[in-house]
Amino acid sequence: MKHIKDLLFIVIFIGLLQTFMQRDMHSGAIPDLPKTIQGKSLISDKPVIIYFWGSWCGICATIQGTISEVLQDYSGVTVALRSGNNTDVLNYLQSNKLDWPVINDNDGALAQAFGVSAVPAVFIVAPDGQIRFVTLGYVTEIGLRLRLGWLKLDF
């Protein structure tokens, strides 16, 4: 019984911490997104993912495979936060074998528009352009796929 209480306490604590950390993150319609450094725009009539990361972020490095897998099946864009100039970002992607569409947010203006104060941060956007889910910190592939799949259901 003590282990169940401890586990319940941990789950509640993590939930409250996540809620506190996400309090300033943007909701509603997504702010305008610039083109990626590859020259592409994010346009989709399906659910999309917007992933904020940093080349300096250890947790971001641990979920690179997760993001790559999800971006093979869903539209999306990644945002390199304070990770250097375009050449630095492209070199980072190349050296890590990442084929991501990326917006370089070296000054943090886009992160500020989204209310992102820490990375990794993931926004799941519905086909109507409204943010439906926000995740801050480590995320699993199944967690992302479940959220994206939920938005594909036609109610």
What does this structure look like?
The protein is α/β, with parallel strands linked by helices and 155 residues long. It has one domain (26-152): Glutaredoxin, CATH 3.40.30. The chain is built from six helices and six strands. The chain has a six-stranded mixed beta sheet. It is globular, with a radius of gyration of 16 Å.
CATH topology name, in short, is Glutaredoxin
What is the CATH first-level class name?
Answer: Alpha Beta
User: Terminal Cα separation, in Å?
Assistant: 40 Å
* DSSP strand content: 15-25%
Which range best describes the helical content: under 10%, 10-25%, 25-40%, 40-55%, 55-70% or over 70%? 40-55%
**Helix/strand class:** alpha/beta
Tell me the CATH superfamily. Answer: Glutaredoxin
Rg measurement, Å:
16 Å
- Average predicted local confidence, pLDDT: 87
What is the number of helical segments per DSSP (H or I, 4+ residues)? Answer: 6
Summarize the structure.
This protein is an alpha/beta fold. It is built from six helices and six strands.
Set out the fold topology.
Elements: H1 2-21, E1 28-29, E2 48-53, H2 58-62, H3 64-73, E3 75-81, H4 86-95, E4 102-105, H5 109-114, E5 121-125, E6 130-136, H6 141-152
Parallel strand pairs: 2-3, 3-4
Antiparallel strand pairs: 1-6, 2-5, 5-6
Fill in the keyword field for this structure.
6-stranded mixed sheet; Glutaredoxin; 41% helix; globular; 155 residues
